[in-house]
Amino acid sequence: MSYQTIIEDDIDILVVGAGLGGTGAAFEARYWGQDKKIVIAEKANIMRSGAVAQGLYAINCYMGTRFGENNPEDHVRYARIDLMGMVREDLLFDMARHVDSAVHNFEEWGLPIMRNEKKGSFLREGRWQIMIHGESYKPIVAEAAKKSADKVFNRICVTHLLMDESKENRVAGAVGFNVRTGNYHVFKSKTVICGAGGASNIFKPRSVGEGAGRVWYAPWSSGSAYGLMIQAGAKMTQMENRIVLARFKDGYGPVGAYFLHLKTYTQNAYGEEYESKWFPELQKMVGKEYLDPEVSHRTHRPIPTCLRNHAIISEVNAGRGPIHMVTMEAFQDPHLEEIGWHNFLGMTVGQAVLWAATDVDPKYENPELTTSEPYVMGSHATGCGAWVSGPEDVSPPEYFWGYNRMTTVEGLFGAGDAAGGTPHAFSSGSFTEGRLAAKAACKYIDDGKAAGIRVSDAQINRRKEEIYKPLETYSVYKNEVVAGSVNPNFINPRQGLDRLQKLMDEYCGGFGVNYMTNDKLLNIGLKKMFILGQDLEKVAASDIHELLRAWELKHRFLTSESVFQHTLFRKETRWPGYYYRGDAMKLDDENWHVLTVSRRDPKTGEYTMEKAPLYHLVGDVEKAPPESHH
Amino acid sequence: MPTFVYMTRCDGCGECVDICPSDIMHIDKTLRRAYNIEPNMCWECYSCVKACPHHAIDVRGYADFAPLGHSVRVIRDEEKGTIAWRIKFRNGKKDMELLAPITTKPWGSATPDLAKVPAPSKEMRDSQLLFNEPKYIRMDDGGLHTLQSNGLEIKKGVQY
Ligand SMILES: Cc1cc2nc3c(=O)[nH]c(=O)nc-3n(C[C@H](O)[C@H](O)[C@H](O)COP(=O)(O)OP(=O)(O)OC[C@H]3O[C@@H](n4cnc5c(N)ncnc54)[C@H](O)[C@@H]3O)c2cc1C
Ligand code: SF4
Ligand code: SF4
């Protein structure tokens, strides 16, 4: 293949994927490393890339310490109960104590944040969310990152991390290709901050045909953060903790502002409240510690999101679907109606398109809700991702190996979806984690930890061959048959993706089987995954765009395999409503009050699973809110 | 929902190609106009629609669930700092215009150049603080939260 090889040498900090985590990293890296070389490699264009490309209408993680609203430990308590106990409290506390400074920076850069005129504070959607006019959220933070970076390489699909050859298990940069020119790009770097985002489209979506891109998380979220780190041998955690969203049907428009700010509520097809009826049985499954509606009512302790999903799923199965969002009351207020529409236009335009197309006016008709296909991501209300070190002053020894947000591969850091065990970080928290990782990466370099890195030409050439192989496969076999998309020697990326999604759906608890699986199904699924892995060696790409899809597929595949392994390992149903293990339908705190950690051996592809201790840093009882400073 | 391009308005400038996060807006080599090469990987994020200088791109709801006859149009204006939307229902009963701000500052003027701010001190480096902290957290004299300052300690009874 005649593509050029372009080598970018002497990089100190390479940011792979500049979404909210990556932009935070690039921005902050310049402050701690004013003389350092900071480079961004991004698959799309950083001005509109990642999960926030469309914009957001709310910042979901803001303490408001400045206004005396919350302290970081309050947020830890909240995320902990929402995740049925399974979180890294050190990372959560650390993120929460810094997150306000990120938000205050955003405001200074021009992000319009709505105000509560009476209190002078930011207008809240709920206890943790503040409302913004966020159509340009991403371009605004991207500007800040661009100013900090020495170079931004847009349209580079990073396929592999480079590994140091003088010291085992140390990162040395990354490689990828430019989806416009086809050129091969080599980034030799002392550290890598991976912010390549979570995974949509690994489970079969409910939408079909032309609509297959109508998924909740962006269709370009290819699980690359996981794929890259897993391939490099980084330990992963909580990969079984996939998320299922309750959203407006088909459009997947957000419901947060509807519930919290517009004070809408749900009911079944017959106008009845259904949720509470499912809770007594459910309480037997998960225990009183996790579901106690009475206590929740008294103390405002939230009922975990997954359990509310369980109620929806059960009610629909009982034949009383669909579930409706009651909008007809709130929307009689023209101001609230306008907010309802802006909410979509600022972050999920497709929902507005759908209602306009189907003549659903929420002022006169209560729209349908549904539960989505599952997703794998680490910054929304789920905690999948790499097993990373916490901060020095907070983390217990098992969670601390020197550099904040560093994975178990030396010099490799994670932020946002990439970092595991830190759910409820959302956009502002992901940006914050990027900042924390950047400071630690600078320290790592200054401590001399990156000295003597060596990358041979052999490694570079081996990766090059591997990257372009799908193009090669195509050109070798394309003329063996007349034309069309069916060839006995290869599959194209779409065909591979369809197979992956079907497999994940049927064996790993997708919507098609009501989120249900068991050890038998998981083992059959893993066997089929193994064969799919072999076929992916034969995936063919007819052009550079398809080559991009081929590598996205490979990253999705690695992510999926890890989800399978983790789901098989955790022998309990920890999150009813996200998935069920039919052979272990109860939550089992005696054996499974632990974090799960996996490692895929990069040489053999074999998985090792272990349990890691779950430390609680924050007591159960909430103190009275701190006094307001204003 | 999947985008399409009006042939007569597009001049092939490539702005949409440059911005699409899904890499699906491409220029047709024969017609020299843009088109969506992979509608089933489109998130209807409207990035291309907003970026097109000729308003040549529009969106039609996904064929698997959205009937024809609706429209959601947008004009984003960086200079004015606003975004304007118009939503028309297929039954003609609703036709809404909505406007929102996109920034409070002249575009890109307020992002700091961190290469030029005073370098952090050793004390700052050794602490847990980030740029602009602690000032930007509390906006008062309070420092960064630590476990101690918040009266926390590692809870006993760790379970394996
Ligand atoms: C529909 C939706 C609604 C949400 N609502 C809210 C909300 O209201 N409030 C809120 O605060 N948060 C919200 N979130 C969550 C928030 O968007 C995420 O938490 C956050 O964006 C995650 O940041 P990240 O950096 O990990 O990933 P992303 O922002 O997705 O960034 C990943 C980046 O990596 C790039 N990339 C991927 N693969 C590669 C590769 N192979 N090579 C190079 N680059 C690559 C991508 O192009 C992208 O730029 C929402 C998310 C979604 C999808
Ligand atoms: S931005 Fe508009 S005018 Fe330019 S190529 Fe795309 S569709 Fe055509
Ligand atoms: S709407 Fe978004 S995903 Fe679809 S073509 Fe335009 S930029 Fe790409």
UniProtKB/TrEMBL annotation, chain A:
As cofactor, the record names: FAD
Going by the UniProt record, its keywords in alphabetical order are: Flavoprotein, Oxidoreductase
Q: Which GO terms describe its biological process?
A: anaerobic respiration
Question: Domain Fumarate reductase/succinate dehydrogenase flavoprotein-like C-terminal: where?
Answer: 499-614
This entry carries the following GO cellular component terms, namely: plasma membrane
The answer, when asked if RNA-binding is one of the entry's keywords, is no
Identify the stretch annotated as signal peptide in this record.
Answer: none
Q: Pfam families, alphabetically?
A: FAD_binding_2 (PF00890), Succ_DH_flav_C (PF02910)
InterPro entries assigned:
AprA, FAD-dep_OxRdtase_2_FAD-bd, FAD/NAD-bd_sf, Fum_R/Succ_DH_flav-like_C_sf, Fum_Rdtase/Succ_DH_flav-like_C, SdhA/FrdA/AprA, Succ_DH/fumarate_Rdtase_cat_sf
Q: Which residues form the FAD-dependent oxidoreductase 2 FAD-binding domain?
A: 12-241
Q: Name one GO molecular function term.
A: electron transfer activity
Report what the protein is called: Adenylylsulfate reductase subunit alpha
Q: Which organism is it from?
A: Sideroxyarcus emersonii
TrEMBL record, chain B:
Q: Name one GO molecular function term.
A: metal ion binding
Q: Which UniProt keywords apply?
A: 4Fe-4S, Iron, Iron-sulfur, Metal-binding
Q: Which residues form the 4Fe-4S ferredoxin-type domain?
A: 1-30, 33-62
Query: Where does the chain cross the membrane?
Result: none
Q: Does the keyword Metal-binding apply?
A: yes
Tagged with keyword Acetylation: no
What the entry lists under Gene3D superfamilies is as follows: 3.30.70.20, Adenylylsulphate reductase, beta subunit, C-terminal domain
- Protein name, as recorded: Adenylylsulfate reductase subunit beta
Could you tell me which species this protein originates from? Answer: Sideroxyarcus emersonii
